[in-house]
Amino acid sequence: MPLEFKDKNYWAVILGGSAGLGLASAKKLAKHGMNICVVHRDRKSDLPVIEKHFDEIKLNHVCFLSFNMDALKPGSRNEILLKLKDTAGKKSVRVLIHSIAKGNLKPMISTDKPVLNNDDFHLTIEAMAVTLYDWTKDLFNSGLFLPDARVISFTSEGNAKAWKNYAAVSAAKAALEAITRNIALEFASYGIRANCIQAGITDTNSFRMIPGSAELAEYSKIRNPFKRLTLPEDVADAVYLLSLDEASWINGAVIPVNGGEHLS
Question: Strand pairing partners for 152?
Answer without folding.
Answer: 97, 195
